[in-house]
């Protein structure tokens, strides 16, 4: 199977197999290893444009699938999309009313890169924190969360914040991540709500 995941061929493979971007294989890789999404889960994808992760999610679950991005997302059968900023504090309430239960939140969102590594990494961490805040506002207890980040000075701060809310947290570099990239994914399972935490004190 190794040759299928060659970094240089991922874009061509995505076009051939009908995915909107090579990022589809990152989620496929993570799902195969960690089984984040179950067949009946309702899933929210943050920073979802152009929609390759939504395509993968739709193949996995029969539940509701919602993509959110500032940019419009071209129509996908069986997927609902919203053009919005997921850092908007009113959005979790809107998503909750649309989906009811949310089992999984995914975020492949990344800031526009400036080329200054430390600055870009700090912006990525801030975006990860916003995705975490969104997740804490919508996930059902026991739900799962996946967020892209970049390793660097503040990465462990984000990692610890995720660990504050989930019982199982791992860091994973996908097989299709480009060589030399500091990109990693934080994989968090079994969300513990504030109500659960308070009840256990």
Brief account:
The protein contains 7 helices and 7 strands, in the order H-H-E-H-E-E-H-E-H-E-H-E-E-H.
Description:
The protein is an alpha/beta fold. It has one domain: Rossmann fold (3-Layer(aba) Sandwich), CATH 3.40.50.150. The protein contains seven helices and seven strands. It has a seven-stranded mixed β-sheet, sandwiched between helices. α4 (91-99) crosses α5. The protein is globular. The termini are far apart. Residues 1-7 and 197-201 have low confidence and may be disordered.
* Sheet of most strands: 7 strands, mixed
The tally of helices reads: 7
Query: Can you list the strand order of the major beta sheet?
Result: 3-2-1-4-5-7-6
Specify the overall morphology.
Answer: globular
CATH secondary-structure class: Alpha Beta
The termini sit apart by 48 Å
User: What oligomeric assembly is this protein in?
Assistant: single chain
Structural class: alpha/beta
Please tell me the overall pLDDT.
Answer: 89
The rounded Rg comes to 16 Å
CATH topology: Rossmann fold
Query: How many E-type strands?
Result: 7
Strand content: 15-25%
pLDDT < 50 stretches: 1-7, 197-201
**CATH architectural grouping:** 3-Layer(aba) Sandwich
Overall tally of structural domains: 1
């Amino acid at each position: 199977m190794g040759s299928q995941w060659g970094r240089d061929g991922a874009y061509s493979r995505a076009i051939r197999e009908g995915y909107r971007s090579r990022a589809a294989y990152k989620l496929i890789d993570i799902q195969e290893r960690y089984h984040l999404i179950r067949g009946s889960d309702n899933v929210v994808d943050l920073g979802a444009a152009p929609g390759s992760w939504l395509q993968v999610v739709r193949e996995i679950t029969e539940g509701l699938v919602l993509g959110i991005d500032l940019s419009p997302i071209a129509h996908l059968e069986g997927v609902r999309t919203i053009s919005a900023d997921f850092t908007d504090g009113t959005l979790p309430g809107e998503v909750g009313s649309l989906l009811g239960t949310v089992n999984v939140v995914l975020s492949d969102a990344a800031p526009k890169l400036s080329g200054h590594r430390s600055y870009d990494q700090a912006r990525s961490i801030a975006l990860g924190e916003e995705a975490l805040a969104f997740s804490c506002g919508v996930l059902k207890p026991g739900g799962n969360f996946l967020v892209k980040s970049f390793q660097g000075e503040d990465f462990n701060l984000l990692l610890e914040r995720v660990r504050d809310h989930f019982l199982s947290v791992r860091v994973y570099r996908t097989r299709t991540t480009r060589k030399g990239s500091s990109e990693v994914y934080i994989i968090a399972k079994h969300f513990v709500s504030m109500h659960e935490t308070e009840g256990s004190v």
